[in-house]
UniProtKB/TrEMBL annotation:
GO terms for cellular component: plasma membrane. It comes from Halopseudomonas yangmingensis. This is Membrane protein involved in the export of O-antigen and teichoic acid. The lineage of its organism: Bacteria, Pseudomonadati, Pseudomonadota, Gammaproteobacteria, Pseudomonadales. It is a multi-pass membrane protein. Keywords: Cell membrane, Membrane, Transmembrane, Transmembrane helix. PANTHER family: O-ANTIGEN TRANSPORTER-RELATED, PST FAMILY PREDICTED COLANIC ACID TRANSPORTER.
Amino acid sequence: MTRLANLALRGMTLVSKFLLIFMLAKLLDPEEVGLYGLVAATVGYALYLLGFDFYTYTTRELLKREKTEWGGLLKSQCAFSMVTYLVFMPLLLILFAFDVLPSYLLGWFFALLVVEHISQELNRLLIAISRPLLASCVLFLRTGLWALLVVGVMFWQPASRSLENVLMSWTLGAAIAVVLGAGSLLRMGLGGWRRQIDWRWVWSGIKIAIPFLLATLAVRGIYTLDRYWFESFAGMEVLAAYVLFIGMSNALMSFLDAGVFAFMYPALISHWQQCSANDFKRQLKQLLLHTAVFCLLFITVAALVLPLLLDWIGRPVYQEHSYLFGWLMAATVLMALSMIPHYALYAQGKDKHIIFSHLGALLVFILSVLVLAPFNTLLAVPAAICCSFFVMLVWKVLAYYLLTPVEYQMLRSAA
């Protein structure tokens, strides 16, 4: 029953995120949809600067220690987060000082950034300490329920249709998620809260987290720079079409993460650790098959449904630039396929090449935009994303074949 409830909550979260972007396109002016895309991408990127991917270190440390020590570790992580706030919050003000984002959104931006960061860390922590249902509740409040509510209100109350109301609802949803997650954590009776902050432990975590942070920032950088670059080429109204179509194509990754990768990659790691070559290859083949089938089904359904949805939205800008969807869908499929050698390398602890492939993809994206923009400004960004993710896919596949023992290699044994 618990697992069923967990899956139901995650399913509703995915559906609500998918529904939100289409309803915003229907109910808001295209300029506001484009601006929403910029804010969402910037908040998503800034979260990694504030969090520093430190959770990759903390969760592993928690699982190695007794609950009587957990409070001290979490206290030290909170102290480190205060440092990142002091460093990066003032830097983010530059976005408003130079009108990259409009000044009237400054308050909502920073309020949203704080509650999103705290709720994200609580969600990760609850997953790590085996509270999956509670983690799903926090996630649903943070990204799902508020979206359903604000869409309903805007649909029935035209006067409420504004970007500020969307951001206010998002902030309140994440704040309620913080209250639920923090309250549940305090009720666990964790010990160690009175211990002094262990800055030496923090520094050890920083050194471990930095490589993962660089890899994450590289990929997230592509999905943040793309919106700003596209807006500079095409304007805020056409950016709305880009935001709609990239939101739709990225839904593929969300569904794959929840329905395929989350269930299959732990077994891949287990087979590698148990030195079971046949099981490792079998699991990798199933991962490839499930990913390919899911991609084909998603593309087929999207191709059939998209024209109907665009007619329902009824705004010419989305129909005129519907060609963007094909490019962005191709980029997402390349990203999805790259996750197969990604998890194979991750299972072996070959993190270095994952990091290099992500950094290389960011460099290829930047260079591709600079090369393609003089020829076609509207296609330069989506085509550059395809180029970068193709390079990332090839890099990971080559790294897998060069670094994996022959007896574990899936495709050669199949041949």
